[in-house]
Amino acid sequence: MRELDPVLVLAELTDGVVSRSTRALLTLARRFGTPEVVLCGPAGDDTLSVLGRYGAPIVRTLWGPGVEEHPTAACVEALVALAVRTPPAAILLPADHAGHEIAARVAIRLDAGLISDAIDVRPDDSGLVATQSPPGGTHRVESTVVRGVPVCTVRTEAVPLVPAPVTARARPFALDLPPHARAVRLVERTAVAPGQRPDLATAAVVVAGGRGVGSQDLFDLVGELADELGGALGGSHTATELGWCPRHAQIDQTGCVIHPDLYLALGISGSVRHRAAVPDAGAIVAVDRDPAAPIFTIADLGVVGDLRDVVPELLAEVRRRKSRPHTEV
């Protein structure tokens, strides 16, 4: 791999702002060569400024008939076309629902190797080496691609952001989507109202509830506890299925992986997928009525009790301590 080798990076905007995952991917991409961003849609001055700050001199902005209605297909077609034109050192994508789908389709089209859910990537003489954490988080695996261009989705929550400023320039990339790419189209966008809580993926304190919370009313108290502690609110897979917690706040391997200094798990039994999503939490405090709940196997402090009693008492105690002068919770 050479310094000037292109590294294709799929960029994401959140509410019009370059996402943290994109900035982290650019930080990683610079290990392999020169980042080249693929962005579905136009790039304003603020977007170019951020992308340039993290080392991307070229931003391919996708446009053409059907691009807005078929963003996933547009990204696939663009990445494939760019990789065929100039084979990149690697193709890096975020490890979210869209990133996984796009990566799989690109790898098939390019007849290339695919690595999913890497937590780190680095170059060596054989190419890209990806570090993965299997379910349970008990060990690490290093994987390489031995066929074609390495296509890799990366969980970037723990990747430090390192700027390397350059001047980013937008280069429009025209697409004429073939009929097969128009089979699925975007029909509606629903904006998620911005909240006052910290971002779940990067919060220092996370409070989460599961099935054991028992009701929406008690889950609302869990949210109040998160607010009192200045933390983010999350939920187990079951809590999101029951509608108590928004889908984007689901903590498990198919949702959000977290790295807080303090994780308070309330009424969460602790499935393998959930435990694997908190591998680097500083301190884990678990409360559940089942003394055999798997969550206690990774907890630093465990409390066996009824959430209907524990949560209100814990909330009251936090508020009481916060009300004292010169007292920190």
CATH topology of the largest domain: Rossmann fold
Contiguous low-pLDDT stretches (5 residues minimum) are none
Number of helices, counting only DSSP H or I runs of 4 residues or more: 8
Rg (C-alpha, Å): 22 Å
Name of the CATH first level of the largest domain = Alpha Beta
**Could you give me the name of the CATH homologous superfamily of the largest domain?**
HUPs
Portion in beta strands: 15-25%
Q: Could you state the order of secondary-structure elements as H and E?
A: EEEHEHEHEHEEEEEEHEHEHEEH
The class by helix and strand makeup works out as alpha/beta
* Average predicted local confidence, pLDDT: 91
- What percentage of residues falls in helices of 4 or more residues? 25-40%
Number of structural domains: 2
Shape: elongated
> How is the biggest beta sheet arranged?
9 strands, mixed
**Cα distance, first to last residue?**
50 Å
Please give the number of β-strands: 16
Proper CATH architecture of the largest domain? 3-Layer(aba) Sandwich
Binding site for FAD: 211, 250-254, 267-274
Keywords: FAD, Flavoprotein
Subunit structure: Heterodimer of an alpha and a beta subunit.
Domain Electron transfer flavoprotein alpha/beta-subunit N-terminal: 7-190
Which helices and strands occur, and which strands form pairs?
Elements: E1 6-10, E2 13-14, E3 17-18, H1 20-29, E4 34-40, H2 45-53, E5 58-63, H3 71-85, E6 90-94, H4 97-110, E7 114-124, E8 127-132, E9 141-144, E10 151-154, E11 169-174, E12 205-209, H5 216-228, E13 232-235, H6 237-241, E14 262-266, H7 272-275, E15 283-288, E16 301-304, H8 307-323
Parallel strand pairs: 1-4, 1-6, 4-5, 5-11, 6-10, 7-10, 12-13, 12-14, 14-15, 15-16
Antiparallel strand pairs: 2-3, 7-8, 8-9
Function: The electron transfer flavoprotein serves as a specific electron acceptor for other dehydrogenases. It transfers the electrons to the main respiratory chain via ETF-ubiquinone oxidoreductase (ETF dehydrogenase).
Binding site for FAD: 211, 250-254, 267-274
Keywords: FAD, Flavoprotein
